[in-house]
């Protein structure tokens, strides 16, 4: 398949700019019957789609206040997006400026914080703060890095709403947005039904928003993201599978985490980087069902859900969602997906 196979028309007014007042008030488009049309539900109906032995898998990453502003020694404005922290005073960052900075040059951030450009790495830059720690600078001067399709600056309300209620492990530059729909009342309803959950960690990188630039998908190089699937998570998932329960991945990041950890043929603990590119033709080893938001046209995330639920089913469902006025992307509505029947 080719990149253009994953294009669909999306009216700009359907791109959600703010979250709803209540997390679980979003709509839920259910593709839970291979023989029936998609069903229009609300997210609070999720427990009715699950079974008592099912296990939800959440990504517990926490979004950093990763957007920083400053200027070069020449006076030109600079916008930084911290992609990954190394030592306390070193990070890999995206830099937006009129001209890319040179190795050895300096950038002055807000508060007079000085940063030195150490080197360029695959289109990003490695920076060292001279007398500060990145965690302190981000906490004081950083902004939440809302996605580029949210056409407004971050606001105070985003500090809470662009994080999941279970976010703990700091390191992402984008939220695992399928998890944004879960609140305490929904967790209570799931617990009452005997539906458990387990956590993995995948620090979402800015590359998740980068467009696929090649038409031939064989030529696409996937961005790297750091993830961890613990031994305890693997054991819990194995127990659920043995008992007849299903593994329900909450979000594409949970899918990539689990499938990366099972790349050797069976699920094993994993800690490190993944460049796993899931597209139609991929054979899933762990995930039995998926909860996900709606994704950008021609994106690797749309390719992933099409690989899971079937290309024709997904593209038909997206056209249905547009016609029915669903809200799209990070602060938008969600889908519940069962896999396409495979031979």
From TrEMBL:
Record family assignment: Belongs to the QueA family.
Pathway where this protein functions:
tRNA modification; tRNA-queuosine biosynthesis
Sorted UniProt keywords: Cytoplasm, Glycosyltransferase, Isomerase, Queuosine biosynthesis, S-adenosyl-L-methionine, Transferase
**Protein name from the UniProt record:** S-adenosylmethionine:tRNA ribosyltransferase-isomerase
> E.C. number, please?
2.4.99.17
- Function, in words: Transfers and isomerizes the ribose moiety from AdoMet to the 7-aminomethyl group of 7-deazaguanine (preQ1-tRNA) to give epoxyqueuosine (oQ-tRNA).
Q: Where in the cell is it found?
A: Cytoplasm
The protein's enzyme class: transferase
Underlying gene: queA
Q: Where mainly found?
A: cytoplasm
Domain of life the protein comes from: Bacteria
Q: Which InterPro entries match?
A: QueA, QueA_dom1, QueA_dom2, QueA_sf
For this protein, what reaction is catalysed?
A: 7-aminomethyl-7-carbaguanosine(34) in tRNA + S-adenosyl-L-methionine = epoxyqueuosine(34) in tRNA + adenine + L-methionine + 2 H(+)
Q: Does the keyword S-adenosyl-L-methionine apply?
A: yes
């Amino acid at each position: 398949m080719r990149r253009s196979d994953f294009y669909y028309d999306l009216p700009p007014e359907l791109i959600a700019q703010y979250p709803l007042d209540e997390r679980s008030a979003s709509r839920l488009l259910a593709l839970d019957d291979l023989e029936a049309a998609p069903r229009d539900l609300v997210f609070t109906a999720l427990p009715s789609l699950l079974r008592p032995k099912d296990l939800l898998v959440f990504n517990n990453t926490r979004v950093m206040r990763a957007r920083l502003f400053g200027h070069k020694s020449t006076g030109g404005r600079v916008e930084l997006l911290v992609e990954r922290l190394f030592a306390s005073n070193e990070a890999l960052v995206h830099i937006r400026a009129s001209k890319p900075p040179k190795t050895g040059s300096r950038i002055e951030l807000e508060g007079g914080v000085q940063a030195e450009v150490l080197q360029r790495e695959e289109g990003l830059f490695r920076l060292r703060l001279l007398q500060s720690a990145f965690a302190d600078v981000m906490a004081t001067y950083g902004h939440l890095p809302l996605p580029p399709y949210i056409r407004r600056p971050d606001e105070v309300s985003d500090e809470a709403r662009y994080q999941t209620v279970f976010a703990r492990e700091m390191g992402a530059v984008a939220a695992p947005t399928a998890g944004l729909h879960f609140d305490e009342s929904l967790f209570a309803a799931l617990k009452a039904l005997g539906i458990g959950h387990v956590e993995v960690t995948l620090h979402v990188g800015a590359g998740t928003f980068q467009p696929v630039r090649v038409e031939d998908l064989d030529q696409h190089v996937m961005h790297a993201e750091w993830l961890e699937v613990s031994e305890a998570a693997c054991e819990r998932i194995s127990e659920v599978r043995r008992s007849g329960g299903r593994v329900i991945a909450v979000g594409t990041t949970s899918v990539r985490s689990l499938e990366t950890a099972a790349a050797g043929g069976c699920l094993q603990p994993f800690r490190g980087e993944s460049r796993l590119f899931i597209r139609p033709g991929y054979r899933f080893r762990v995930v039995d069902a998926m909860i996900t938001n709606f994704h950008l046209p021609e994106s690797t995330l749309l390719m992933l859900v099409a690989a899971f639920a079937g290309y024709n089913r997904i593209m038909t469902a997206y056209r249905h969602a547009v016609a029915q006025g669903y809200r799209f992307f990070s602060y938008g509505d969600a889908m519940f997906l069962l896999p396409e029947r495979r031979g």
